[in-house]
Amino acid sequence: MIDFDGTLNAAIGKALGDEVPIVFPGISTPVLGIFSLITDHIFSEESGASANITVATLGLQVSQLPSPPQQGIVIQINGASYVVKDVAIDGLGWAYLDLGAQ
Q1: Which CATH number is 58's domain given?
Q2: The pTM is what?
Q3: Which Pfam family is an annotated match for this chain, by its short name (predicted)?
């Protein structure tokens, strides 16, 4: 069996990740994460794109954290603070955090 977390996830984090401080209650811990900030469009049925939205996401190796990620924790990236709105864990040791501006 392949150790996805120890081999694949660790390699992805080292190659593509940036150090990101994550604040848990009572502790701040730096992790390697892959941050993306994507601009997308909201479409209405009557017309084309009616608005633009910005979606912030952080992917990271869960085993770097002192406890599993959860909604409400604070993350600081490039001088901006984000709060975790949703957490999706892929079952292989990687998590995708949907972020909102704080």
Answers
A1: 2.40.10
A2: 0.80
A3: Phage_attach
